[in-house]
Specification:
Elements (H helix, E strand, L loop, with lengths): L3 E2 L4 H8 L7 E4 L5 E3 L4 E3 L5 E4 L6 E8 L2 E5 L3 E5 L2 H19 L1
Antiparallel strand pairs: 1-4, 2-3, 2-8, 4-5, 5-6, 6-7
Amino acid sequence: MDALDGNAIAGTLEAVFGKDMTTASGTCANCGMRSMVGELGVYLRAPGIVVRCRRCDNVLMVLVEAHGVTVVDLHGLRTLDPTAWRSQHESQTQLLEERNRHE
């Protein structure tokens, strides 16, 4: 079964967390790889949605809908930071804009 990327579950994650989580930074509890949720491997054909680390294949998240409620298991994540990548991108964008103003 081929994995999709985390963008495939953007709507589900936004419904659960109340914000766009595809740019959130997650750290695998098994191998320590840090990446955006949008870059993780997503499998939709399992019982529920399974999100795996691209490096070690560790299960990071499982999302299952039961009786109209989405239950989320994040046991495979050491960290989940919804602001980390966005802040880094904004800092890089500001540096580029500043450099372009002085050229």
